[in-house]
Amino acid sequence: MSSLAMQTPASPTVPATGPAQLPAVVPVYACEHGIDAEQLEAARIRLELLYGEVAADWPGFIARPGQYEMMQACLLTFLSAKSPEDEKRSGNHLAQLEAGTGTGKTVAYCLAALVAAEVLKKTVMVSTATVALQEQLIHKDLPRLSSIIPELTFDILKGRARYVCQSRMEGMIEGIVPGSELAGELQDLFADSRRPTASVVRDRQAAMRWFKSSAKKLNAGAWDGDIDSLAQSPNPQDWRQVQANAHACNGGQCEHFRNCAFFKARRQAAGATLQVVNHALVLATLQTDSSLIDAGNTLFVFDEAHHLPAIAAEQFPYRARLGASTRLLF
Ligand code: SF4
Q1: Could you tell me the distance, in angstroms and rounded to a whole number, from the CA of residue 261 to the centre of ligand 1?
Q2: Where do the Helicase ATP-binding domain residues begin and end (predicted)?
Q3: How far is the CA of 268 from the centre of ligand 1 (A)?
Q4: Which ligand 1 atom is the nearest neighbour of the CA of 165?
Q5: Can you tell me the distance from the alpha carbon of 79 to that of 35, in angstroms, rounded to the nearest whole number?
Q6: What is the pLDDT along the chain (330 residues), one digit of tens a residue?
């Protein structure tokens, strides 16, 4: 696993020097950090080639010294990647890089990541803190890069809760439709003084209409089961009833497994060179859904890394009562 943490400094820095080649000390660095010299040379040549292609084909592209230096630093860090099975590598597999807005960080880390992924046969995961940056990557920067470099494929990786669970959706429809067993039970249940109010009944009917129309679209292939691809956001309460959920999922045992929206999206993302994700999902996955990310075979880039501490603090809170803890200690 190797990680890059990208940050934008408060006052942008502008490098004073021109584009630099990998410094002469690199072979020594490579040796010290367990990078194979031939692998490094092959990666360096490939990176130069890709950078040249981007410089030639990206409209209005300006080659910036800072971008070039960042790209080299990213490559060296990625090539020092260490996985749990690779204990021999003592490489410095974590880099914290800062660059001002407009330096071209995305191109720098994406090209380095693409080359390293090819050489090391690993997946690259680019994590962002904000939806704005994620949108910019998915809809602007990465399509433009991949139009120049077709080998660069990308996809977005979302948490389960963004996808519908077809099994739960069917359960909702079959369980509550008028005339069904559950509907009968519900009617009996409410046939006393706690009779549901008109607004509750109307809400249920609206929910049922939404479940049915969504199931129809899903079955007809007119909806991919991703909440974000719906023209209109569903009622949060309705969505909660049918969203995919690790605890309620039978995985391969489920009759919908092959066409399951979540597993389909996951398989599709796994085939991409670069997967875009967000910090909260990476951290949550490390805690719970560990199968979503193969950390030992992934090169991580944390863009907007300055948000990481706050998100980590939200993700891994631990509360202890001071009085009880003190009594335990003394
Ligand atoms: S595989 Fe899991 S998430 Fe997908 S439809 Fe089945 S139960 Fe739901």
Answers
A1: 8
A2: 53-330
A3: 16
A4: 8
A5: 6
A6: 556 666 544 433 333 333 344 554 556 666 666 777 888 889 999 999 999 999 999 998 888 888 999 999 999 889 887 665 666 655 567 888 988 888 889 999 999 999 999 998 888 999 999 988 988 999 999 999 999 999 999 999 888 899 999 999 999 998 744 434 444 444 554 455 455 566 666 588 899 999 999 999 999 999 999 999 999 999 999 999 999 998 889 888 999 999 999 999 989 998 899 999 999 988 888 777 566 788 778 899 999 999 999 998 887 777 777 777 777 776
With a 6 A CB cut-off, is 257 part of the ligand 1 pocket? yes
CB distance 169 to ligand 1 below 6 Å:
no
Ligand 1 pocket check for 249: Cβ under 6 Å: yes
Q: Which of 160, 263, 267 to mutate to test the pocket of ligand 1 (most atoms within 8 A of CB)?
A: 263
CA distance 247 to 254: 13
Packed helices 105-120 and 65-79: angle between N→C axes, nearest 10 degrees: 30
| 250 in contact with ligand 1, CB cutoff 6 A | yes
Contact residues for 133 (Cβ-Cβ < 8 A; gap 6+): 303, 304
Kindly report the protein residue whose alpha carbon is nearest to atom 2 of ligand 1: 249
- CA dihedral angle for residue 104, residue 108, residue 109, residue 112, rounded to 10 degrees: 170
CA of 249 to the centre of ligand 1 (A): 5
Which residue segments constitute the domains of the chain, with CATH numbers given?
2-153+272-315 (3.40.50), 162-258 (no CATH)
* Selection from 125, 94, 101, 128 nearest residue 3 by Cα: 94
Distance, CA 146 to ligand 1 centroid (Å)?
32
